[in-house]
Design goal:
The complex is a heterodimer of chains A (about 375) and B (about 425). Chain A has about 375 residues and is of the alpha/beta class. Chain A is built from 14 helices and seven strands. In chain A, α2 crosses α3, α2 packs antiparallel against α12 and α3 runs parallel beside α10. Chain B folds into three domains: about 120 residues, RNA polymerase II/Efflux pump adaptor protein, barrel-sandwich hybrid domain (OB fold (Dihydrolipoamide Acetyltransferase, E2P)); about 80 residues, no CATH class; about 200 residues, Chloramphenicol acetyltransferase-like domain (Chloramphenicol Acetyltransferase, 2-Layer Sandwich). The chains are: A alpha/beta (about 375), B alpha+beta (about 425). At the A-B interface, α2, α11, α13 and α14 of A face β5 and α2 of B.
Chain lengths: ~375, ~425
Amino acid sequence: MDHLVMTSDPRRLLPSDAPVRLISPEGEPVPHETYRLPSGEALLAAYAAMTTARRVNDQASALVRQGRLAVYPSSHGQEACQVAAAQVLTDDDWLFPTYRDVAAMVARGLDPVEALVLLQGDWHCGHNPYERKVAPQTTPLATQLPHAVGVAHAARLKGEPTVVMALCGDGATSEGDFHEALNFAAVFQTPVVFFVQNNRYAISVPLARQTAAPSLAHKGVGYGIPGEQVDGNDLAALLAVLGTAVERARGGAGPQLVEAHTYRVQAHTNADDPTRYRDEAEVGAWVARDPLRRLGTFLENRALLTAEQAAALDKDADDVAAAMRAGLSKDAEPDPARLFAHVYQTPTPQLAEQAALVADEISRMVDG
Amino acid sequence: MNAHTFVLPDLGEGLTEAELVRWLVAEGDEVVVDQPVAEVETAKAVVEVPTPFGGRVTRLHAKAGQTIDVGTPLLSVEPPGDGDVRREEGRGGSGNVLVGYGSSASGGSGRRRRPRAPTQRAPTQQTPARQTPARQPPAQPGRVPRVASPLVRRRARERGVDIGVLEGTGPGGLITGADVERAVRGTQGLPSMPSPGTGERRTPLNGFQKAMSSALTRSRSEIPEATVWVDVDATALVELRESARRPSDPGPGLLSYLARFVVMALKEYPVLNSRLDTERQEIVEFDRINLGIAAQGRRGLVVPVIMGAESLSTAQLDERIRDVTRKAREGQLAPEDLTGGTFTFNNYGVFGVDGSAAIIHHPQVAILGLGRIIDRPWAVNGEIRVRKIAQMSFVFDHRICDGGTAAGFMRSVADAIENPAGALARL
């Protein structure tokens, strides 16, 4: 019966057999039949952003151990994904980050101090989401994905050229929200790129306990969404694959699922001890595939990055780090009443009741 | 120039303390911003702590092995003249070098976390001091306090308020922070809490007090206890004790006879020399009787344990009791002298009191107490006589036996006291 015949050719939806790679871990170019190496200019700009991203990660990790941030989930080692996710977008596009994507938000143009306000412990996300079209970071896994699809669907209905980059990790692919978001996006052909940074651990849960699928990118076929997998430590490949996916979505071809194979080099957060569930040898192998060094070697070998330029980039990163230390030197002092102020435009009776209860509690506390 | 002091931050979302594993710098060293200065171990992980200040280290505020509270000083740094010092390249800097604390170049084994020595973490984390037990009835078993907020629970814990007995004034009887505060004011009989720092002195609990606090709180919150008591005529026993006194040898003390009778009665009622395994819902009776005896120590009352009391004669018990009471007075009791008890005999009469609703020493299941022995007018065979009378109390875990068993046990001890000659037949 005709109505039972699916419209998509499943073979067209399958990802490449191996993750797309354009630069080897040693910094040498790798030819690919589908994807082309981005221009030297684009790669240098990406390298500059990645230098900053690395410094933002490490400064934030220091700040959390100095009591200046409540928590910091570092994307150290995943900076290529962070930078590529931001750099393939135009000013019309939206970025929906997770809690581990501060570096992507900074690459999108946010002030690092503003990007870290949430993790400092304040009640708000620190930035105006509409200004740079960066949604607030979400702590629950995958809840941002249906939101991202909603924004993309709205843009499509309004005839706007917006593409939404929806980020999540490997752990989030087991959540119901992931399923709902991909299904809705596929059925309504919304312009979303689902970008999964598979860093191999959901806190302590390894990928092998997360999924039995051939790859996370293969999950797309079940929804009718094309999947692709890419070397997550190869910034050139990420720019090529994500750039293609964004342009495809903008052209009306619907959503795409991209899985980047990368690694969470550091602890889940400062409250985690990764030595309890994985070997240092495993970590060491991934440190050797560091995305920053890989692209740096490639650029240096082609004289696209001079020692002076590299020093200047380090100096810029120093300035960013100093600004972070200065800007985050004071504790956030959130007013509990503000918690209720922005949930609904018109507060529900229940919320008003809760707000009154909190206000009453505070007023009756002798020592505040 | 004023030194900056770096206080220990909460290193893992809600931690209150950390153990200093080792210093990575020494006093007098020059440090740069973000240089790791100490390795600390929290309940969650070993973490290298970077200094937020550059300059010369003027003071390390703790020693390796010490547990430091979050919010207390870690180290002081005197800043250099011109702002913060940056780390030089080549010193393992925090710039573009690929070292993270999760996988730092410690060169150690895969597992950096070491088991903590048992003495370094007193078992008091879950149940800090309960400061006002006397004024509050114990929580009713089965009644779940209506508390939604962890903040309210914490406040109650810190204030020493048992939320199990609070009446909530929030919606649906919810216990609020204000209810906790009201309970604190109520127990103190004060119109309001005094502001901290005026007219009060704070003394942190020492490790022993913390452990006691934990055991007592656990007892009162877990054990549905019941108490029985009886007046005992100890005239015959006192006479027996005096008859054994010689100029060269004072003979066994009263306490030794009493201990012997307790051991005898425990053999008759072994269920009282046990513990309750709540997980498996089993009563675990012990072959050995390790008898705890309350004694006056240097820093307060202690309960040293006479191990293996089931096989000791009255004279042997006397020797052991004299030994531990002397050690208690001289502050020489080792931790092992104070642990491992299976039953406690509380001779509170030596403090001049008649009765006590004692607290069972969890995980034991009962505690026997004897008040002071004093001359009282007493009816004997229809005549008023002056006799040596004491009140005996027995507190037991009602889950492991009924009141009949408890009364039988206490009566057995009481009968032996009143008729020591008759008890000989049962020894």
